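During the first year of the project, the team set up a workflow for recording each protein of interest as an amino acid sequence followed immediately by a discrete structure-token representation. This format lets reviewers and collaborators read both layers of information side by side without switching files. As required by the reporting guidelines, we include two representative entries from the current panel. The first entry is reproduced here exactly as it appears in our internal archive.
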Amino acid sequence: MVWRTNTSNQWVDYQFGGPTNDSLVPLKTANRILAAAVPGGAIAAFPPPHNFFWSRETEFNLGYSWYRKDSDASCAFGVAAGRG
């Protein structure tokens, strides 16, 4: 998974080492984008701003992006429907 943090504007490249996750791991991503880089390409998750976020919100994600390591061979990622 790769994302840019909204606090330091630095790229994070997480390689899914370590144990599996029992629950979703929330991320605060810049520009509301989270991507999975795979050989030959990538796939990204981001919400459509016109029906997920209200007009006064900044470009920073408030923890709605998430990932989860299910096993050494699989993972999940996306955008939560809301946290509050």
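The second entry, processed by the same pipeline in the following quarter, appears below.
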Amino acid sequence: MELLDLDLRNADVVDTPRPVMNPDLVPALRPVLNPKKTPALKPAISVVGLGYVGAVSMACLSSLGHRCIGVDVDARKVEQIAAGESPIHEQDLGETLSEGVANGLIEATDDLERAVWDTDVTFVSVGTPTAADGGCDYRYIEAAAEGMARGLRRKRSFHVFVMRCSIPPGTTLSVMAPIIERISGRKAGRDFGVCFNPEFLREGVAIADFHNPPKTVIGTTDLRSAEILRDIYAPVDAQPIFTSIEAAEMVKYVDNVWHATKVCFANEVGRLCKPSGVDSREVMDIFVQDHKLNLSAYYLKPGFAYGGSCLPKEVRAVQHMAKEAGVTLPMIGNLERSNREHIDEAVRMVRATGARRVGILGLAFKPGTDDLRESPILEVMAALHAEGVALQVHDEAITKDTPLEGQLAYVRHGSKGGAELAANLPAMLNDDLDEVVEGAEVLVVCHASEAYRSKMRRSHARAVIDLVGLYNSPCETRAPLEGIGW
């Protein structure tokens, strides 16, 4: 199947929070995804699975003027939907369903084959329970795919199948699509479209969330399907995010794990505050008022480990406070462990190359400063130096004349790597970027500077280990380039 080459990464996520299609594809997409074109007749939509997501989606789609057919194996749900009654307790759902039935836009059936044959788009919202091994149980997806394939086999027109369930990345294309192809005898991308469209509906306010979504993510295999889904969601979101199916599948999990992380974090703050007599509710009320750093995309960029004069020191301080108070904080207590795993992975990546001469581009804990206190690359360098690897280091803000003794002494109890390198670090520094780049078998990039970005395109190194995301999208470089998270 031909996947869209769509890029979600941005150089500055804070300034451009809404990812868009890869600009290189815009000329090719313009004839297809033309927002000013005259809208055609609204496509008819079948919805497989009439639980929380399916029932809400069908009701809301009907309110946008789509004729909808709901499908479920549960006869009671089918009867309730057909009568305009809500099968679940959800604000405004009953009224929306009743209105759809009254307007002749909603019907329900247990005949999936007929529903697919009689519609243009099928949304799949069947259950994906946990399997015995802790993974995902695909039984309901497989059963739905078989029924949808039989319906597709009866028709000649193009049909779009839209998966909405929470499923591991790759499931839509490796489980659902092959079954549809095999039974229908049709080809995905040519005869039918396949999409993944995760839902971000909160129970209790799901109707409101549908009409005012936080984001609309459409993972698709072809431009025709992208256009159809774009038009369906146009009344509620004029700027959907187009991406690959696998990325759309993953983002659903990532969203929910992040929400779980926030709950655990706030609860651990509560347990930390209570022994000191501090009102954690007041603390968190203040915390969430910061939308520049605390509630933003600023730190949410895959890259390298945290470091600097604040984060490592204060994580340790909070862990110490909790220990002294007899409070267990599993998440906060494991931040150092998680950070260390990132550092260790960088070491493993360098070792895997077999290089004995390594160039380090960027020494301070972040660009634009000469502060190397607890810079995580020091830990990587210390491990490599202990193994006899020759290191040459370049930093745009640190030279051979930069006084480092005071900084390294300040972190003697926090930065093991800094302490181990204190005597040898000045000799590793090289103010000539060309010498560092040309003399290294492998380069490790720790700062996303324009100078380093330009050098990497022409570097003849055996490999480039990019810890910071030098480029916004996959880039042609002479040397193989990879990071810890990409």
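For the second entry, the following points were noted during internal review. The chain is about 40% helix and 10% strand. The chain has two domains: 23-250, 337-482. Both points are flagged for discussion at the upcoming steering committee meeting.
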